[in-house]
Amino acid sequence: MRFQPLVIVVAVVGAVAFVGVAVALAAEPDDCPRDLSGLALTRPGDATASAAAPAEIERPMSRRAARRARRAANGWRTIAPRAESAEPFQRGIDEPRVAEDAAESVTDRPRIRRIRDIPYVERGHARQRFDLFLPGRQASEPLPLVVWIHGTTWRDGSKDDCPVTWLVDKGYAVASVGYRLTDTAVFPAQFEDCLEAVDHLQTNAGTWNLDPSRFVIAGSAAGGHLAALVGLAENHVVDPARPRVCGVCVVSAPTLLTTLGPTQDRAGSPASLLVGGPLPEFREAAQRASPLTHISSHAPPFLIIHAKVNDGDAAVPIEQSRQFDEALRAAGAKSSLVVIDRQAAKSPLTADSLAAGPIVEFLERSFGRSGGR
After folding, report:
1. Angstrom distance (rounded) from CA 223 to CA 148
2. Can you say how many angstroms the Cα of residue 358 is from the centroid of all Cα atoms in its chain?
3. Cα–Cα distances in angstroms (integers) from residue 184 to residues 44, 126, 154, 289, in the given order
4. Which are the contacts of 70, defined by CB distance < 8 A and separation ≥ 6?
5. Residues whose CB is less than 8 angstroms from the CB of residue 265 and which lie 6 or more positions away in sequence, other chains included
6. pLDDT tens, N- to C-terminus, the chain (373 residues)
């Protein structure tokens, strides 16, 4: 009986340890969420106003760690990880799910073959997929690729909206990329998704007879903003193992979020939702998310198209495109600005639009005159 106190103590300690382990396991997330907050797009020495950074950040894939380290070594600095919000994201129909096999189909134009819903992240989000448009007949040589990033805002849109599939008839392949919207994650999740899609396409280029050394990134509105960021980031890293982006085409895209105007400064605006709060209060985050702040001598050639409308109608002021074009030129990069009038603004990217000629000329310069033909 003299051992009874010792037995009681041992039993109590064991019970406490068991409860602690159970609590820890219950707190562990099922899908091992991945920290994306370590990446920032601000270059050393950029003058940015101090402000609170967004609290809610979707976490990244571990395979990006090597690319992040290369960018840091080449001048793209990182910031300290940000705290997770206590409130969970409202995922709704965009709940992540296991990727299914891509489906191939023939479009309403028999000369174009469409492969739908190709996942670029293993067990990723439902929007982390792309569609690939290829000539109906197998090309004799690897095809140059136009990577299209959809708009209109970072809160809406879909990869199903791809207005440049007519480029397949010109000898190019087209990939239409989806990405997580701001109802799921805030910046830089959208940027990271687009980078991952480009990386996946280059890594697996041989599967679809693509030329990984001839990629042009393109997009309109929010998609143009992301296309500009991807092009600037990919070409800033000097990595012999990875081909550089040949060019970037942006259409009516915001390039400096801090000067979009009072409408976008509001808390519920698309640009404010992108960075996690009102632009004036999240100024540092807004500058990190602005392509204009990342221009350098490494910038690829740019074609900037802007649909000119009445001042009161323009979601993105034309000054955004003009300032971006001037900054690229001042840095020593190649840039062309094409302004489209109001009548053509409703459908600026169709095959018979005023922008079609400049786009094809830009692709021929970027890929070489022969294109994919």
Report:
1. 8
2. 24
3. 29, 11, 11, 17
4. 237, 239
5. 272, 278, 279, 280
6. 444 554 444 454 455 444 443 434 344 343 333 333 333 443 333 343 333 333 333 434 444 555 555 555 544 433 333 333 323 222 222 333 333 445 665 555 558 999 999 999 999 999 999 999 999 888 889 999 999 999 999 999 999 999 999 999 999 999 999 999 999 999 999 999 999 999 999 999 999 999 999 999 999 999 999 999 999 997 766 566 678 899 999 999 999 999 999 999 999 999 999 999 999 999 999 999 999 999 999 999 999 999 876 554 567 999 999 999 999 999 999 999 999 876 555 567 889 888 999 999 999 999 986 555 5
Does the reported pTM lie above 0.85? no
Please name every residue paired with 340 in a beta bridge, in sequence order, or none if there are none: 307
DSSP 372: T
- Report helix, strand or coil for 19: helix
* Residue from 327, 279, 319, 282 nearest 302 by CA: 327
Question: Partners of 324 in the beta sheet?
Answer: none
Alpha-carbon distance 135 to 285, whole Å? 41
DSSP E strand boundaries for the chain: 103-106, 112-119, 129-135, 143-149, 173-177, 210-220, 247-251, 302-307, 335-340
CA-to-CA distance for 296 and 318, rounded, in angstroms?
22
Distance CA 335, CA 140 (A): 32
Sheet (strand 103-106) strand order: 103-106, 112-119, 129-135, 173-177, 143-149, 210-220, 247-251, 302-307, 335-340
3-state helix, strand, coil in the chain (%, to 5): 35, 15, 50
Cis peptide before 152 (omega within 30 of 0): yes
Q: Are strands 173-177 and 210-220 parallel, antiparallel or unpaired?
A: unpaired
Which of these, 191, 68, 188, lies nearest to 177 by C-alpha position? Answer: 191
Written as one letter, the residue type at 52 is A
Give me the DSSP letters along 87-129.
SPP--GGG---PPPPPEEEE-SSTTEEEEEEEESSTT--TTSE
What type of residue sits at position 356? A
